[in-house]
Write a structure and sequence with these properties.
Elements: E1 4-8, H1 34-47, E2 52-56, H2 64-74, E3 80-85, H3 93-105, E4 110-114, H4 126-136, E5 141-144, E6 150-152, E7 161-163, H5 171-175, E8 183-184, E9 201-204, E10 209-213, E11 216-220, H6 226-232, H7 241-255, E12 263-264, H8 267-278
Parallel strand pairs: 1-2, 1-9, 2-3, 3-4, 4-5
Antiparallel strand pairs: 6-7, 8-12, 9-10, 10-11
Helix pairs in contact: 1-2, 1-6, 3-4, 7-8
Length: 295
């Protein structure tokens, strides 16, 4: 049962981070309109199972009036609302309070701030100023710190695992896998991160894609209502999710006879690479193209 929705308010972002699995950046477009948010709110209410939503991106603060209006709309539909931001707007603590005061008035449940080397190098940075301002305003706040992938001692059979918190999909596959240890492709027989059979959450974007994992769409909510899509979702009939549920990326590669490498860093790396090879075969299920670095 889907309980939460991540609203990808925009794919536009002032940063172009190496670890971004959505390939967001200053040159990527795709932003919700106010009317689309109204339609989404109606569908959230129709579902009756959604208890929380997050406004994310890209960078949602780039479209500040739209974000604030969206939060205001969703207040009537869900019990918890969060926002994820890189805090570029916190040039001073005083300025940060100005940006955050409307969110305080809307009583958001969480403010998540990106504070890592992908976003900032200085010790005194925008995220830390936003953190201070949020605490002064008594807004529930936390920081997200993702480091570059590193090799850590494995817990199982002494095999190395990759630490740092990076998901090796999207731009991370292009920028961050060099030099990392790999394993044989046939060891990746499950998806260790997402419940594709009975998803608890989905991501939605302005194009209508309803992602069970970023870049894997269960359908288009502008063509079929979101409540209907979620209510009728069956992983066993989905051309991408069915093999992933049954046998992970190894089975996905086998089912569609995809030529692939012998080794991959992790399951995400293998899965993303196979999906990239299938984008033109299943365009309605592997969307939008831009999260695969394609035009």
């Amino acid at each position: 049962m889907v309980k939460g929705i991540h609203i990808l308010l925009t794919y536009d972002c002032n940063f172009e981070c190496d670890h971004c699995f959505l390939y967001c950046g200053p040159h990527f477009r795709g932003t919700f309109t106010g009317d689309q948010l109204k339609l989404l709110k109606e569908e959230v209410e129709n579902l009756e199972t959604i208890s929380w939503v997050y406004f994310e991106g890209g960078e949602p603060f780039l479209y500040y009036p739209l974000m604030v209006e969206g939060i205001s709309m969703m207040k009537d539909a869900v019990s918890e609302i969060g926002v994820v931001t890189n805090a570029y707007w916190a040039t001073t603590v005083e300025d940060a309070r100005l940006w955050l005061h409307p969110l305080k008035e809307l009583d958001i449940s969480d403010l998540s701030l990106s504070d890592d080397a992908f976003h900032f190098s200085a010790v005194d940075n925008e995220a830390k100023r936003a953190l201070k301002a949020a605490k002064e305003l008594d807004i529930p706040v936390n920081t997200i710190c993702i480091d570059e992938p590193t090799v850590e001692k494995g817990q199982e059979k002494g095999e190395p695992v990759i630490g740092g918190g990076v998901m090796l999909r999207g731009r991370a596959v292009e920028k961050l896998i060099e030099g990392l240890p790999r394993r044989n492709y046939d060891t990746f027989t499950e998806c260790p991160f997402e419940d594709l059979e009975e998803p608890q959450r989905v991501h939605v974007d302005c194009y209508g894609n309803v992602h069970v994992c970023q870049g894997i769409s269960m359908g288009n909510m502008w063509e079929t209502p979101l409540s209907e899509l979620i209510g009728s979702y069956d992983s066993s009939t989905h051309p991408i999710c069915e093999p992933l549920v049954e046998g992970g990326p190894a089975l996905l590669a086998q089912k569609y006879d995809i030529v692939h490498e012998d080794t991959y860093v992790d399951a995400c790396h293998f899965c993303y690479s196979m999906r990239l090879a299938l984008v033109d075969v299943f365009p309605q299920y592997l969307a939008p193209r831009q999260v695969y670095g394609l035009k």
